[in-house]
Structure prediction request, 112 residues.
Amino acid sequence: MRIAIPVAQDKLCMHFGHCEKFAVIDVDPQLDTITNREDFTPPQHEPGVLPKWLAGMAVNVIIAGGMGQRAQQLFSQNGIEVVIGASADSPENLVSAYLGKTLKTGDNICDH
Prediction:
């Protein structure tokens, strides 16, 4: 399993389209443990680019603070589960909470 998190200053960037990079975290689903993290600089943010780019890296889940409806649909069409409303924290803490089913999510902070 691969989980992507948009980051700025090594914390979740509240809007995925404005992040500095994406932390892509590999997880052993049998053990619910993080096995690897790589950071990638994303291509320029334009509609449809990021879902295809992350799908090409075999990402299964994206955890974000906010995301527009159209982006959510595009991620879904690319086979990526969308988790929105997460708070700013380190990628490792967010993934650990997701795996432990304790990730707290709130409102989608994106209004488009």
The first helix runs from residue 49 to 56.
